[in-house]
Design a protein that fits this description.
Number of helices: 3
Mean pLDDT: 83
Shape: globular
Distance between the termini: 22 Å
Order of helices and strands: EHEHH
Strand order of the largest sheet: 1-2
Radius of gyration: 13 Å
Oligomer: single chain
Number of domains: 1
Largest sheet: 2 strands, parallel
Number of strands: 2
Length: 82
């Protein structure tokens, strides 16, 4: 399971919620949305699908590690760069 923050919840509260839900599973919690998408991208290369939910075509409201402005932009960046 790979997870990112949801809107309206503090990062500390989200981490606590995710950790409490993931105690029975192998889980990676990645607070940075672009790095979470990259992790899923890396794991799925030539092996499967990636489902990204929650943002639609919205622009990011925060700066993340990758130089992108939306989920679609992040996927295009990964496709062009890696």
């Amino acid at each position: 399971m790979i997870a990112v923050y949801k809107r309206g919840v503090s990062p500390k509260q989200m981490m606590h919620e995710l950790e409490s839900l993931s105690h029975h599973e192998k889980c990676i919690i990645i607070p940075d949305r672009t790095l979470a998408i990259k992790q899923a991208w890396d794991q799925a290369q030539n092996q499967g699908w990636i489902v990204i939910t929650g943002k639609g075509n919205e622009l990011y409201r925060h700066r993340y590690s990758l130089p992108t402005t939306s989920d679609l932009n992040t996927l295009n960046y990964l496709n062009d760069t890696f």
